[in-house]
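Issue: ligand-bound run for alpha-D-glucopyranose - logging full I/O for the record.

Environment: standard queue, default settings, no custom constraints.

Inputs:
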Amino acid sequence: MLNRSFLRFLNLSRRRLSLIILALVVAAGALLFGVYVRAQQPVTISFLLRAVEADQMQGLADQFMAENPDIRIEMVRGPNAADAVENLYTTSFLLGDSPYDILFSDVVWIPKFAAAGWLMDLSDRVSEADLADFLEADVAAGVYQDGFYRMPFRSDMGMLYYRTDLLNQVGLQPPATFADLIAASETIQDQTDVNWGFVWQGLQYEGLVTNFVELVAGYGGFWVDADTLEVGLDQPAAIQATDFMKGVIAQGISPPGVTNYIEEDALRQFENGNAVFMRNWPYAWAEANGDGSPVAGNIALKPMVHTANEQPAACLGGWGFGISATTPHLEEAWRVVQFFTSPGPMKDFITEFAYVPSRRALFTDPEVLAVFPHYEQLLEVAETAVPRPPVGQYAQLSDILQRYLSAAITDQMTPEAAMRAAAGESRRVLGVDG
Ligand code: GLC
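Outputs:
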């Protein structure tokens, strides 16, 4: 008991003492309440992705958050060029302690990110049987040495879109060969008021490389053989492929501005009725054939053109989820990955936006086929799609190819000189003799 003389000694009245005690009780209460509120607050799982795709994935994220109130998904909107997003991820991982719990990864990033130790090995979390439902190439893209680092979410393959009405108007079949595509473009540009024959992705970025992969295979060649590390860029097929890109611009079949196009730019031209043919990924279908598109109902797509004695080739693309090695929320991040890659959400996403599923069964799912009858044909294309070389130095190889292709198509170098230089630099990066 505090007696009066002690209180006097402290110079406190009883009243004052009660006020101090009250204040202490209130402060302790507030502290406990804060701890409680923090414990109730959801854990945030964050990842970076192309802005166009963030808009599209928001619906699934909202569904997940409604079903899982303990987790908040934060999708950070990045640039729309795939490799620009890769650079941002790379910088954040290099700084250590990446702010991203998840790596929303292009099909070509895993060897680099896994080799750097930036990703969690997911092998113990998925069985062979789980993975058997996915396209083989999508699964292979997640493997690095003995580990598995990327759950496939959606696949991709480059296709040739064409205007059925214009081909009918001039009485031509869809083109099979490079020469057919050029001839049909010229005829239609001559006989109709459509300005351009062929739009594609010519900006110096990853998309340019994917266009090239299809063309070089269509001429019977290759970029880098991942098994032998042989570089094919100075062989005739690669030079012909570069020549084709340069030629369609020089002949007025492609607009001069195509050297600045990414996917969305080509799609705008095609959708607005300004081009007969477009190279793009299957997602372009949803918009080009959607309500309000001037060309809706008048488009179709097929595998890319090639030379008479070769097969068409589609470049393998696609996106999936890895988990950052430094995330403090591994279990929550894994729940997010499981949700996005499970059959239901994947099906909703691909049917809404015409993306290509990574799960095989969805290609022949009656509800999917009711919306996209061409998916049955896409499965065949998906199983034979040409991957970009899955090597740890991929980003450097792509950068070299982008620079020299761009130099060739913007008339700064001849296709031959550009490809020779690109081949030499690629061999140096790979450490193989020229
Ligand atoms: C698509 C593909 C991706 C590719 C990119 C290039 O997003 O899915 O694999 O790297 O296009 O622009």
